What we know:
Layout: E1 4-7, H1 11-22, E2 27-30, E3 54-57, H2 64-74, H3 78-85, E4 87-88, E5 93-96, H4 98-111, E6 115-118, E7 131-133, H5 141-151, E8 156-162, E9 165-167, E10 177-178, H6 188-191, E11 194-199, H7 201-213, H8 234-239, E12 267-273, E13 280-283, H9 292-299, E14 310-312, E15 315-321, H10 324-327, E16 333-334, E17 337-342, H11 352-370, H12 383-394, H13 423-443
Parallel strand pairs: 1-2, 1-7, 2-6, 7-17
Antiparallel strand pairs: 3-5, 4-5, 8-15, 9-13, 9-14, 10-11, 11-12, 12-13, 16-17
Helix pairs in contact: 1-11, 2-11, 2-13, 3-4
Amino acid sequence: MQPIHIIGAGLAGSEAAWxxxxxxxxxxxxxxxxxxxxxxxxxxxxxxxxxxxxxxSDDDQMNAVGQLHWEMRAANGLxxxxxxxxxxxxxxxxAVDRDAFSNAVSEVLRAHPLIEIRGEEITDLPSEGNxxxxxxxxxxxxxxxxxxxxxxxxSLAFFDAIAPIVHADSIDMSICWLQSRYDxxxxxxxxxxxxxxxxxxxxxEAFIDALLAADKAEFREGETAGYFDGCLxxxxxxxxxxxxxRHGPMKPVGLTxxxxxxxxxxxxxxxxxxxxxxxxYNIVGFQTKMKYGAQTEVFKRIPGLQNxxxxxxxxxxxxTFLNSPTLIxxxxxxRLRPNLRFAGQVTGVEGYVESxxxxxxxxxxxxxxxxxxxxxxxxxxxxxxxLVNHITGGAExxxxxxMNVNFxxxxxxxxIKGGRRGRKNRYPAYTDRAKADFNSWLAAQG
Length: 446
């Protein structure tokens, strides 16, 4: 049997390789790192997490991404299994020790008898064979040009910003305190998963002034600043209004200052644990394109971080993706060349979990085809099915932008009250229906 080839060993490529091999089909996984470096990656390991260490909400009753976690676990997903094994306290979210997670994924893939990993760059789209392109938002220039030449479509791009990471022992805990928002979590460790830095109104106003005045990174010639709203740099948010951050990543709700319980903070900066040892914390929602010197100066204005030592400062990189509604069918195949499937962020899904989920589907679909079967996508009523529908026709091609999974992509339910007040009943109804339909989809595969 001829192997299926995958370009890119990120979360989508790694998951695709696992699904194919588990179906009994050989696979060759091509990864250009570390021979060819990217702006954001540090290693040549599989499934390296760059921007954050969080898979977001793990609530499979009230949250669409939590339901996506459930579906990936039900489908024998490698990414979710390794995430569960290396999870960190994060309230109601699923966060992982990113290095341990990546190492574990790499070890499992290297040990599989049907998986071969080759350290090489693929610069042209192959015209023959069964291939999955899972190159992510940092697709190499050469391959990106090959994709553009084949599709004849202009590449779309936005800029994805990376949040800074702080050494825990440099945070002043006489000012900060440990607490998850609304004390969410089943264990004490979960309920104290975040470090909180309180701000008075004066602190906040001074911080906003410094943020707006800071030196920003310049864009390269030909680049445009088309940001994805779910990952805006904090200075861009601040430019939209002085109160924007206070109602976004710096909102003070659901938190009580352990040092001054009677005082309500005007704004709060949260840091989430980034490794199992608890020695590193990332500043939640603080993606930035400020220059390094400006970052240090501005972030040290945050109460509790005045003596902060940074393990990594923020950055910004280009993120490219296809106009998938015009180019890809619901089996994730390129319409112009059906021997090529696409998976991950290059398809226009946004987020680690969404990317890995598209890898899971591309892998299963490619393996089924190799075995002489056709595998349709999951029902539209599931998180995976809703995402596939969005990127392959549900979205408007003229305004297509990256999308996280959300209940807005689900078909509406009859006889369930809409609006904010109806969420308590509507969201569990969505996820109950999704679980039943996803299980039926899995059962049909035998």
